[in-house]
Design goal:
Protein Transport Mog1p, Chain A; 41% helix; alpha+beta; 8-stranded antiparallel beta sheet
């Protein structure tokens, strides 16, 4: 029975150590900055400076439109509990215009403060995706990473990526990629794994991970391609003592080559997604070269090892 050889990848232009308190604090900062800066900046520019703060606040609310202002503030609070934040933000901007005729008609008189408020709010939300994420460590039984802070990762959003090669005397080589990334405009973890998996498959992002595997194994990446495996989209990961029991989003794809024979399956690529509160995504990809009928088709050994390590902090 074949057992996989393993490589792991983790990303961040601003790496920091794995401390949950730091991670939670930075998530709160990423959430608080947009609204805490947008309101006073707009207040300072578009209200009468000789008035009291309370009077200027009511003036700002009136210029923005009371319904629009209230809906935007409430929507920002709801970013922690409602998934699909892009839809929530679009709804919060459009909804007041649809249900309130006065709100629509007053745009001509107050288009500058309203446009400024919305643009600054959205811009700061996107900029806050640059706030660094923690740099993941690894279990003690893993070797030192062969790549630290992979230069191929994007500057935005903030990410952290390293690569490990775990040589366990295995005859079926595997590359594992662990990506830690701050998801833009996201703080609620619900359904983030599902939507991210769809984006990864649509934009063919996993091809880069397959390329990394081929290069590390001394193979030509042009000789390989991916094909989706129709399987369950979620899988339960449990360890023997019950300290790990979690259902995660999973996607599986076959690695296919036409050399030496056409449509030959030479391995599998398994990606598991876990999202923390505050919008921090962990994408763990195990690329196993060799027989597709592995003894561990869901990469449970590697995923559980890492989850056990992560839960220690």
């Amino acid at each position: 029975m074949k057992t996989p050889l393993i490589v792991i990848i983790l990303t961040s232009p601003f790496p920091i150590e794995l401390f949950p308190e730091v991670s939670q604090m930075l998530s709160l900062v990423a959430w608080g900055i947009p609204i805490c800066l947008t309101v006073p900046i707009t207040l300072f520019i578009f209200t009468e400076k000789k008035n009291k703060i309370s009077e200027r606040f009511h003036e700002l609310r009136s210029k923005l439109g009371k319904l629009l202002f209230d809906v935007l503030i409430i929507s920002h609070l709801l970013l922690w509990v409602i998934p699909f934040h892009g839809i929530l933000i679009i709804f919060s901007i459009i909804f007041p215009q649809l249900v309130n005729n006065e709100q629509r008609e007053s745009w001509k008189l107050n288009y500058k403060p309203r446009s400024f408020f919305i643009v600054i709010w959205l811009l700061l939300i996107l900029i806050c995706a640059l706030i660094p994420v923690t740099n993941p460590g690894s279990p003690t039984e893993w070797d030192d990473p062969i790549i630290v802070d992979d230069s191929r990762v994007f500057f935005w959003p903030a990410s952290s990526q390293n690569v490990w090669l775990l040589d366990r005397d295995l005859d079926s080589p595997v590359v594992v990629t662990i990506l830690h990334q701050r998801v833009p405009v996201t703080f609620c973890p619900w359904n983030v794994g599902t939507s991210t998996s769809w984006i990864v498959e649509t934009l063919h992002i996993d091809e880069a991970r397959l390329e990394e595997t081929a290069i590390r194994l001394g193979l030509d990446p042009e000789n390989f391609r991916l094909e989706k495996i129709n399987s369950e989209s979620n899988h339960d990961y449990r360890n023997s003592n019950g300290s790990i029991d979690i259902t995660l989003t999973v996607s599986k794809r076959k690695i296919i080559t036409d050399f030496p024979f056409e449509n030959t399956v030479v391995g599998e690529l398994i990606t598991v997604y876990q999202t923390d509160w505050g919008g921090e995504l962990w994408a763990i990809t195990v690329t196993q070269m060799g027989s597709s009928s592995s003894h561990d088709p869901w990469a449970e050994e590697i995923i559980i090892e890492w989850l056990e390590f992560k839960n220690q902090f």
